Amino acid sequence: MTPLLRKLLGMNWLLVGLTILLSLFGVVAVYSATYFRTSEYWEKQAVWVAGGLCVFFAVSLVHYRWVKWAALPLYVAGAVLTALTYTSLGQEHGGAKCWLRLPGIGTFQPSQLALLAGILTVALFLSQFAKMHPLLKLSSVGAIIAGPILLTLKQPDFGMTLVWIPVMLATAFAAGLPKRYLLAVLLSGMALLPLVINFALKPYQRQRLVTFIDPQIDPQGASYAINQALIAIGSGGFAGKGFKATGTQVEQGFIPGTTVHTDYIFTAIGEQWGFLGNTILISAFAALLFACLYSAHKSADDYGLVISAGFATQIFFHVYQNIGMTIAIMPITGLPLPLISYGGTFLLMNMFALGLVNSVWIHRKEVI
Hints:
By secondary structure, this protein is mostly helical. The protein is built from 13 helices and 3 strands. The chain has helices spanning about 5-10, 15-35, 40-60, 70-85, 110-130, 135-155, 160-175, 180-200, 205-215, 225-235, 265-295, 300-325, 345-360; strands spanning about 90-95, 95-100, 105-110. A 3-stranded antiparallel sheet has the order 1-2-3, with helices on one face.
């Protein structure tokens, strides 16, 4: 049996199957949320899914340890590109100047690359300096992630900034740092949160937090989107109104057409597929996370363990935050739903990350 065939047959097939199914369902979900206005979004999403799956399988077949050499260059590229959003190349979206338009390449969100590169770089550091004192390791991790976090917060993209916190705590935990240090970091972050809210966020972002606490405080203004999302999901009932159902909240424009296929895609799914469809979708994500964590558990080295745990946490937080904000258990931050929401940059980053997790599984039995 050739090495290539051995790798193809030795993939984490639960991870592979769920990645394919979720990404294909994402095309269907984007289509159902936008077909009555335009075919542009779902057609582009289908192309991105095809390209993303190619990335997924290509990265899966490459030994994940080779990615160590790309960690630092990707980290520098992510930080530089995020900084470029402050120039004339940056574009505003949803109140945050977090998008970058490069001639010949197009528009993308560099903070997502910065997060992926941050996970790889932190994993490289923690695996290379395993015997360093925990406090020094934690301080070094803080120094590594401080730049990208501050650049993202200044945009200000509060949602992407939040993702860094659970991801970095998870990578540190997977690397074996004592829980008391991680708890101290978490408590310190919570203590600094009021300062961030009052001095780093724009007024509309602070208003989102206020409406999260009291959704009825401005029903025709800041609370409008979340109230309409709750009505749409609730109207779906148990089995939903049906695929491409007419007369829905989504079709009638009560959910903003600019975000229904991105931030509020779960709302469209809930209205058309109901509680049953949402339960199946959430169960699929739970199984995907299990596959990622099982790959981490079986990893041949600390580097594979840490990157798998980091990517699993990134996906979990995106899923939790995206679904949570549409059902009013989390404030609105504009984070997309992995593999489902419309968007090329985020889809490709997730495919790359899942491909690395699959590579960790494929090469789990190799002697270090």
